[in-house]
Amino acid sequence: MTSPLHEERAPGTDRALPDTQQGMRRRNLARVMHAVSAEGPLSRAATASRIGLTRAAVSTLVDDLIRWGLLEELGPERPGRVGRPGSALAVSGRGPAGIGAEIGVDHLAVCTVDLRGVVRARAVRHGANRGRSPQQVAKELVALVHSVAEEAEREGLWPAGLAVAVPGLVARDGRTVVRAPNLGWHDADLGALFPGNLPLTVDNEANFGALAELWLGEGTPRDFLHVSAEIGIGAAVVVDGRLLRGTRGFAGELGHVPVRPDGRACPCGGRGCLEQYAGEEAVLRAAGLEPGEDLVDQLAGRAEEGDENVRVALRDAGTALGVALTGAVNLLDPETVVLGGALSDLSPWLLPSLQTELTGRAAGPVCPVAVSRLGPQGPLLGAAHSVVRAVLDDPTVVAERP
Amino acid sequence: MTSPLHEERAPGTDRALPDTQQGMRRRNLARVMHAVSAEGPLSRAATASRIGLTRAAVSTLVDDLIRWGLLEELGPERPGRVGRPGSALAVSGRGPAGIGAEIGVDHLAVCTVDLRGVVRARAVRHGANRGRSPQQVAKELVALVHSVAEEAEREGLWPAGLAVAVPGLVARDGRTVVRAPNLGWHDADLGALFPGNLPLTVDNEANFGALAELWLGEGTPRDFLHVSAEIGIGAAVVVDGRLLRGTRGFAGELGHVPVRPDGRACPCGGRGCLEQYAGEEAVLRAAGLEPGEDLVDQLAGRAEEGDENVRVALRDAGTALGVALTGAVNLLDPETVVLGGALSDLSPWLLPSLQTELTGRAAGPVCPVAVSRLGPQGPLLGAAHSVVRAVLDDPTVVAERP
């Protein structure tokens, strides 16, 4: 798409190390893993032709990947897509796996995903986390992680890393929760609360939800804006297949975009923020309902039954979302907007007014809005898959493991 | 900053070609150019140690770069920073050069910049371009480009490419002006109007202004939002040293972010867009002045003299900018906002109210706002430097030239 003149970043200035044989080998190992992952089972010859290397070069790489437990040979008798005789290669269903965890306002969840992308073990614990300390929650989550990891180990898997989704802003160190108002946490170093032997990444749930959409959604483009809601409203910006994180890791705070500059005061210190018009609590208030458990189910149920107050409240929330998204689309020019999390369940009542705003205010072609099929599962799946992706992208990270 | 688990993009999936010796050599050539450009004059040994390659490997690369006219040897007698005896290397002040051009609403400008970043020739033609056809304007611009290129050629330079800044939206093909309302152009293929023998890139002036800020500004971070204004208001988002272009190339349309959702109708089809409150015409109208030439000088002059209407109009424009920027900062979390173009000259009267909004509405630490020192020169310089950067980033693009 872009001409050579558009390369703004010098390839020589943004890497600490020079380009070496080692770096080249690492990238070619990743190419083999991605080729087999996307198109396998594949013979060595077919893999070589897919990635444009010689068969001899690929064989050396494949031998390492088999030794590390990332690939397996299916044997010469396997029929199907493999044209030439020779053993077909497949991504291993044993060996390294990703563990994803989610800290929700009223639940904890953990799952294990193998290198093939299959969920192999899962556990959920319901119960309010609001007001509990990070130590209390982490302790319980660690126990849940252990039970899921043990279950996976019985099937020959071992955890290559743990990724934790939280409903809050996470610093770029990937471990400090700077602010999670709906848990009552600030500046909580989760890195210190998890076992040190497992590589850990903590991230905002909207970010992991967007990554799940990128990796698992059908036909999701590489440039999109992912909007999700639990109690707050969050968004994640994906550009050319990468999350835009922001300087401090705080990008995507759509909930605090002003949509009524002289409107309601917001606890953030601002005025007229989107969250004051489209957040769950605002919608409940507008509909005359009391906060409680399972807010989304409650709202969706009543709207379904034809409750006019609820429908008007959701329609107005859609209008506010449409105003905020018009600004975001003008700034980012995404290929699509995806509504995820709780918003996907409420989309039948939000979408019409949201689209009216987006269409009426659009300068050019209107940015399409899609509804996520992953819904509330997105963040947990995104977390587990982020570990798997890290292994596929640099297989040498697991080379040392016996 | 980012842990390996944050790598969302597979290194093997986003490049068409496998990693080869040729690709490695190209990247190492770029490393040599950037090292000498940033720290030269440097001996071959010092260059090798800067980029972590052997002296023998660097010498082979340097020989090619000298033959292509990109580096020159200063001779062994040069004193100074070079510790060891041996010929010091410097970026050549002859050889390939970048030509930048700017199509403004009331001027055309062209300049040549050598590989050292020095402006070597320059030409400006004043006169309104509004309502003239792309063909008419391009013809005149081509003549200006020729005269500047000839001047540069007399000093031993030759044009490696031409980059043209336009006040409008440019498609990602880097040649089609999709919409330039202040010129009255739409869907104009500038690529067909310039000589085919020179690599051409057309881009939005706000984008080139932001790149100039990135490359030439003092202490400009690698993540920032650049806001500029001529007749319209544009912005450019720079993330990790790269422009965020958007799916169609239209990212950065800050002027059409809604700041008063029920406010004034905008020719774009929207309502309450920032441009209706902070665009030059809106400010003139609010100040009770007639549109004319040199609007910015006129506004700045009157504000300087203490004209209360003008000051109030600029203060209100700053407020509207502050509302739109609050949304942008919440979405993007940039390290800083830079006011460029005409906004830099008006900043004394815009900044106080702009900062009041940004501070009052900020959830966390306030994003700092800086004023560009390049001002209206930014887009032209950014265009010329983009050609120079392309050569530094991949020196092989000029290898074929005698």
Mean pLDDT of chain A: 89
Major sheet: arrangement of strands of chain A: 6-5-4-7-11
Helix fraction of chain A by DSSP (H/I, runs of at least 4) = 25-40%
Instruction: Return the domain count of chain A.
Output: 3
CATH topology (fold) name of the largest domain in chain A: Nucleotidyltransferase, domain 5
Tally of helical segments of chain A: 11
Biggest interchain interface, per-side counts: A-B, 98 and 99 residues
- CATH class of the largest domain in chain A reads Alpha Beta
First-residue to last-residue Cα separation of chain A? 43 Å
Q: Structural class, judged by helices and strands of chain A?
A: alpha/beta
CATH superfamily of the largest domain in chain A: ATPase, nucleotide binding domain
Question: H/E element string of chain A?
Answer: HEHHEEEEEHEEEEEHEEEHHHHEHEH
Account of the 3D structure:
Chains A, B: It holds the Pfam family ROK. Chains A, B: This is ROK family transcriptional regulator. Chains A, B: Residues 1-23 are annotated as: Disordered. Chains A, B: InterPro entries: ATPase_NBD, ROK, WH-like_DNA-bd_sf, WH_DNA-bd_sf. Chains A, B: Belongs to the ROK (NagC/XylR) family. Two copies of one chain form a homodimer. The first copy, chain A, has 402 residues and is of the alpha/beta class. The first copy, chain A, has three domains: 20-91, Winged helix-like DNA-binding domain superfamily/Winged helix DNA-binding domain (Arc Repressor Mutant, subunit A); 97-210 and 379-398, Nucleotidyltransferase, domain 5 (2-Layer Sandwich), CATH 3.30.420.40; 218-373, ATPase, nucleotide binding domain (Nucleotidyltransferase, domain 5, 2-Layer Sandwich), CATH 3.30.420. Helix content of chain A is 39%, strand content 21%. Chain A has eleven helices and 16 strands. In chain A, the strands form four sheets. The first copy, chain A, has a five-stranded mixed sheet with strand order 6-5-4-7-11, with helices on both faces. The first copy, chain A, has a five-stranded mixed sheet with strand order 14-13-12-15-16, sandwiched between helices. Chain A is globular. Chain A starts with 20 loop residues before the first helix and ends in a 9-residue tail after the last helix. At the A-B interface, α1, β13, β14, α9 and α11 of A face α1, β13, β14, α9 and α11 of B.
